[in-house]
Amino acid sequence: MQLMGMGVGGVVFASGLGGLSGCASSRPKPEGDDDFYFVQLSDTHWGFKGPPKPQADVTLKNTVGLVNSLKRQPDFIVFTGDLTHTTDDDNERRKRMAEFTQIVSGLNVKNLRFMAGEHDAALDAGKAYQEFFGQLHYTFDHKGIHFIVLDNVSDPGASIGEAQLSWLKSDLQKLDVEQPIIVLTHRPLFALYPSWDWTTKDGDAAIALLQNYRNVTVFYGHIHQENHQMTGRIAHHSAKSLIFPLPAPGSVPKRAPVPWDPAHPNQGLGYRGVDAQPRRDLRIEEFAIG
Asked: Which class in CATH covers the domain with range 3-23+34-271?
C-alpha cells in the first residue's frame, strides 16, 4: 500500500517558543502579518534497501505528493537530515543526492531548507553534501523568527566543535534576549540516550549559549520517532522518520528498526507542520502516516 493512499491524522501541541506549554490545543490561530506555517520532513534515507522498509523506493516520492496535497501550503519546508542513506562509495553517495534533489524538485513549495544527517556527511566530512545542498551550518530569518541550522553530524565523533560554537555565540550576540529563535539540528543536543548515538557530545555547550535567550525551540530528527523534552526553558521536539521507525530509547537491548508490518506498511512514519506565531507560541501538528 502506498503513502498516498493512507489517511493523515494530527495531534496538535502548543509550544511556547521558550517551552512546552500544553497539548491537544484547539485554540484558534491568531491572525497577524508575521504568522506563518512551515513543514518539517526528516530522515528520508533515500537509497536505503532492506526488510525494515520494502517500499523504500517509493516513500519519498509519495511524500512529495502528500505534501503537495495539503490544503494549506507552507511558507517553506525543512529537511532535518539523513536525506540519503549512508554508503562507502563516493560515486553512489553523489548519485543518491542527485536523485533526492530531483525527487524533491517536484514539491510545489520551492523554498526548501536542507541540513545534513550523519548518513549524508559523516564519512566525508560533508564534502558531497555541500556540493549539492550548500553550507552545513547557517542562519536565516523569516517573519520575525531567527532560524539557526547547526551541524552535529559532519564530525563522526558527533560534536559541534569549537569553531561552530564560536560562530553560534557570535550570531546570538547580535540578538535581543527576547528574539524568537528556532534551532534546527539532526541529532538531539541533549543526552537522550548516548549509547544509541542519541546525543551530541558538546551539545550542552550549545544549550548553555541558547539558555540566555527566552524564546528558543529546537526541532531535530535522527531518532525516527516523536519525542518532547525540556532543558531549562528550551523545548526540544523530534520528528518521525519517513523511512522506518526506531524503538523508544532503551526499550530494547539493541537499537534496530522496528520490523516492517505488511498490514500497516507506514506505521510509525510521519511529518509535522508548525504554525509559527512570533512572540506568542508555536502550534505543532504531528501528521501520522498510516
From this structure: alpha beta
